[in-house]
Every structure is written in C-alpha cells, then in structure tokens.
Amino acid sequence: MALRQRAARGTVLPLQRPPPPAPSSSTSNGSHASTTHGNNGTSTTSATATATATATVVSLSNAFLNTKRKLRRSNPNVFFKAYLPLIGFFSVVMGCTYLALGGQHGTLSGHHHYHPHQAEVDDRVKPHIYRRKLTTDEDHDKTQSEGGLRDADKQQKAWLERETHKLEADREKREEEFEKQKEQLRMERKLEEELLEKEKQQLARLKEEERKEELALKQEEEKLHQRAFIKSHKVDNWMEICEKNVRDTMRTATAQTQETFMQSLEDLAMCAEAPLTKNLVKLNRDLSQEAKVRMDIAAKLENYTCVDPDAPASPDVSSHIWTLKDGSTRKVHIKHDRPASQIHVVDNFINEEECLAMETAASKSLHRATVADGKGGSQYSDNRKAMQAGIRVPWHHEAEGDPIARLSRRVYDYTNHVTGLSIDEHGQEDLMSIQYFGRGVDDDHPDRYMPHCDGGCTGLPFRNGTRMATMVVYCTLPEKGGSTNFRNAGVHVKAQKGAAVFFSYMDPKSFLTDDRFTEHSGCPVFEGEKKIVTQWIRLGVDKENPWTSYNTMGIKLKDASEY
C-alpha cells in the first residue's frame, strides 16, 4: 500500500537484487578463476537471453496496457469481460519468463550465477513493471469508480429527462387551458359588445322614431293652428294686401288662363307665407306657455283639492242616457270632452252583488300595489300606497250570469259606446281590486296614488297593444278623502257608491294620445276604507297577442329581448 502511494507520488524506488555471495575460503584462486573463465561465454549468452526476455516482457506489458486502454474507451462492458483473461495470460507469461531467467542464472545447479549486467537490467525493468502494475490497479479502480459514476449520471440524466418531460407536458396543458379560457372570455366579451351594440342601435331607432313622431305631431299642430289662424284673421291687413295683389295680377292679364290662375295662387301663398308663419310661431309659443302655466297651477292646487273633504265635484259639460243591451239605462255625466281625452261619470254602474263577488275573490291574493319602473317592469313606490289583487274573469260562466263576468262585459260595452270601436275581452288585463285604508288625518303618509297617467299622455301616436282607456268603479267609500282628481283638466270627481269614472286617453280617429289632460291622482284616504274595481282597456290585443306579451313600456317582450 505504501509502495502504491509512492508510485502515485512518483517516488517509487527501483528494486535491486541483493549482491552475489562472496566466494568461500576453500575455493582456490585458480579454481575461481577457472570457473569464471570457463563460464565467460555462458555468461554472455545468459545476458543476451535476459535482455531478450526483458524486452519481450516490456513489449507484452505495453501491448497489454494498450489493449486495456482501447477496451476501456471503446466499450466498458467488454473491457471488464476481457480484462480478467488478459491478466491471467499476462501472469502465465511473467511466470514463464521468470523461470527462464532463473534457469539461465544457474539456480538448478545450486549455484547463484549473477551476471555483472543483471543488476542494471533489473534496475531498468522492475521499476517499470511495478509502475505498470500500480497504474493498472489504479486504472482498474478508477474505471470501476467512473463506471459507477457514469451509471449514476445516466440514471440522474434519465430522471431529469422524465421530470422535464412531465413539467413540459404540464406547462403545455396549462397553456392550453389558459388559451381556452382566454378564447371563452373573448367570445363572451364579443357577445356582450354585440348585445350592447344592438341596444344602442335599438335605442337610436327609438329615439329617431320619437323624433319623427314629435316632428310629425308638431307639423300637424302647426297646420291646425294655421287653419284656425287663417279662419279667424281673414280681414287682417296683410291678407287684404295679398288679395289686392292677386286681383291686380288677374285683372291685368289679357286672358285668364289656367296658368294665370295658378300663378295667382302661388303669389298669394308667397305673400301670406312670411306673416302667417310669424304669427303661427308666436301663437304656438303662447299656447305652450299657457299650457305650462296651467299645469303649474294645477300642481299647486292638487293638495288643496285633495285635502279638502268638502270640495265639490266639477260641473258637467253635458250629460246623456246610456241604454244597455238588457234595456236598462244609466245616466252619464260628461266632465271633460276632447277627441283624445274623455272624462265621464256613470251612475249605478255596479251593484252590491258584483262588489261582494270582487271583494271575496280579491281577499285570497291581496298584495302591495306596484307601479311601472320605466324600464318595462314594475316596482314598489311611495307614490302608490295601496293593496291590490288581480281577478281573472270567469268568461266560461258568463252565460250562467256570473257577477264578475257580467261587470267586465259592461265595461267593454260602455267603452265601445264612447269610442265607436269594437273592443272585446280577448287578451285584456284582469280586473283589479284596489283597497286603500285610512289611519287618521294626522297620518304623514296616508294611502294614496300620486298624479300619473295610465297610458300614453304625451300627445304622440298611440302604441298598439297598450292601454287606451280606464274604468274605475266605487264599491266602498271612505269617511274622509278618496276622491279622484284630474288636475290638468280641472276636473274633481267625488266618490259615489256604485258609480264609475270612465276616462279615455286616445283619439279613436287620429290615434293620437292625450296631452296630459287625463293625468289623475287618487286623493289620500284619511278615515275609513276605499275599495274600488279597476279595468284597464287595451287596443290591439287578442288571443294570440295578450297583454302579457307586452312590457309596461308597450314593447313586445320578444322584441324587447333583442335590445
């Protein structure tokens, strides 16, 4: 072990043969000299053989080491398999060489013959042999160590490749999921943008339609005002001047041909256009101002009218008798009479049996009343404090005299009597039972219904499928309060048991809506109970298109879903 460490440090000392033994005293000088002399030729031959054997051993050692290196570099597995046989072979050769060298030195005869050059040969060969052996052992250990490290490196490399492949697969999977989520978000955003764009387009269309409707209405109003103005100002100065100009033109014409007549009309129109337009604009401005003042005054008088329980009912404009299909009659009090706005009070419109039937049917489903939210739906509001319940009309029992069906039929008959239309029950809203409860005159928030319109009251054309008239029937009267007030029309209706208030808000000929004359309110109920039955009448509904297919803005639900 110490020798191997020295060899590794390059400090291996050469191995030397021990010196030959000294000649014995019994041997004569002559004998020794003769022996030495006699063996002179043999010693030369042995030295030559020794050198040859040594060279052979060195060559074999070099060949063995070269073969070892080649095998280790080319294929480690083959190297370990071939290395052991080569060691055995080399051991045999070394043994044979040693025996051959020993025999030539005279070991068989019992004498130790030592050639004078033998030490030099040993000094030159044996260190080399030992160094080769040490190098071979170290290479063997190193090869085993490197082989183990190489196997470990291969295993670690294979493990790293597997882990890298897993990580890469996970990364690709996550990227794929991320791309899918990204694509889904992109599609949702695109869909939202498309819906938003549709809503914008629909809103733009609605605004454009409203603008056109307003423009058409203004033009129609201007025409009506123009006709009225011309009719009432025939003898004005400017009109006389224009007429005089036309007469002069026709008088100076040599022949009153059709062309001359048409030219005279054009001159008249051109002459009257500027002053007439100026006067119409001024008149329209005055009318608008008057309407604004009227509505402001009505708003201020609203509370005074409703709070005063002794406020009298408005006088009749006219009255007439309405004959029903069964031959009975009812007196009608007309409170307001315009093409697009009618307000009537009908005496004895409902009887006790019909009121009791409505109250009984409503008791099962009374709930807090709602108002339109302006977006197509409904909502609770402090502007309307009451309880209500929808009553479906049992039309299949009408022939049997059902009181609810009988009452509803009477409502449609009177509507057709006033409007001249042919409205029936198909697709119409249910009867509505509405109840207000008084909690004393000191109640800060009594049950009431603030001013509102049941249908269109903008003066614009009627929207098909929406409400065009209302019938309110009084069953139970409160002790204080509960009147119905039409503030813009200046009509105040005091509740009368069994009476009905009918008001329409569409011109059945021009189909233009009311201009806020039928805006009304249910005055506060301070003491007692107020129970009424309300029927809203629609135009343009039927079995295939019932009132439930429209939202509170008068837009069909299937069309509203596209906004």
Describe the protein in words.
A 9-stranded antiparallel beta sheet has the order 1-2-3-14-10-16-8-7-4, with helices on one face. By secondary structure, it is of the alpha+beta class. A hairpin with a 5-residue loop joins strand 1 (318-323) and strand 2. The chain has 10 helices and 16 strands. 52% of the residues lie in helices and 15% in strands. Helix 3 packs antiparallel against helix 4 (76-104), helix 5 crosses helix 7 and helix 6 runs antiparallel to helix 7 (258-307).
For this entry, give a set of tags.
single chain, 563 residues, alpha+beta, nine-stranded antiparallel beta sheet, five-stranded antiparallel beta sheet, 10 helices, 52% helix, disordered N terminus
Distance between the termini: 98 Å
Task: Please trace the helix and strand order, writing H or E for each element.
Answer: HHHHHHHEEEHEEEEHEEEEEEEEEH
Provide the β-strand percentage band: 15-25%
Q: How many distinct helices? A: 10
Helical percent range?
40-55%
Strand order of the largest sheet: 1-2-3-14-10-16-8-7-4
Radius of gyration: 64 Å
Short précis:
Helices cover 52% and strands 15% of the residues.
Describe the secondary-structure layout.
Elements (H helix, E strand, L loop, with lengths): L1 H8 L19 H10 L1 H35 L1 H29 L13 H115 L4 H16 L5 H50 L10 E6 L5 E10 L2 E6 L5 H11 L4 E2 L2 E2 L5 E2 L7 E5 L11 H17 L11 E7 L9 E6 L14 E10 L3 E2 L2 E3 L4 E3 L6 E5 L15 E8 L1 E10 L18 H4 L3
Helix pairs in contact: 3-4, 3-5, 5-7, 6-7, 8-9
